[in-house]
Amino acid sequence: MLRRNLQITFDQEDWFVPLRTAVEGVTAEQANWRPAGEKANTIAEIVAHLNFYKSRLLQRLRGEEPNYDGLSNDDTFKPDEAGWQAAVAEMNRIHAELEETIGKLDDEALDRPLPKQALGLTLNSILLHDAHHGGQIVYIRKLQGSWPAARSFD
Fold first, then answer.
1. What are the residues whose beta carbons fall under 8 Å from the beta carbon of 9, sequence distance 6 or more?
2. DinB-like domain: which residues (predicted)?
3. Would you list the domain boundaries of the chain?
4. 100 pLDDT more than 90
């Protein structure tokens, strides 16, 4: 079920728009657009945030202990200095590596702590996190007029 949820939150449309579809065709200008009014994150900031947490998960799955020198959650919303296309490429790379790594896990691995709660719970949480922020990206695109007024999927 976790592998299926990994697919539908990233690149296989189901009941909601997956991340890859949400950012498809977004230009650097659109990615850095911020709605007027209250503080809201840009698409580029959201993708940076998602890349940060999924990269950290991958490090832990590889047995590495991430060192973030006291970064706060707010710090994770800093856009990639290499630019928008680099951030999207990184998002795709992280997802592919995560999907490959998860595909090699057995059921027992999902019960092991990583680092404190069971890996299966951590994975489920990060997938829900992706779905949440994917919805935000679609909403931002609707506000800026870069999301189709009508769309269909199979």
1. 18, 19, 127, 130, 131, 134
2. 19-137
3. 2-66+74-144
4. yes
C-beta of residue 76 within 8 angstroms of C-beta of residue 49: yes
Query: How big is the chain by its Cα radius of gyration, in Å?
Result: 16
Quick: pLDDT tens for 47-98: 999 999 999 999 999 888 887 777 889 899 998 889 999 999 999 999 999 9
User: What is the CATH class of 2-66+74-144?
Assistant: mainly alpha
Q: Tell me the one-letter amino acid at 112.
A: R
- Quick check: 65 and 37 in contact, CB under 8 A? no
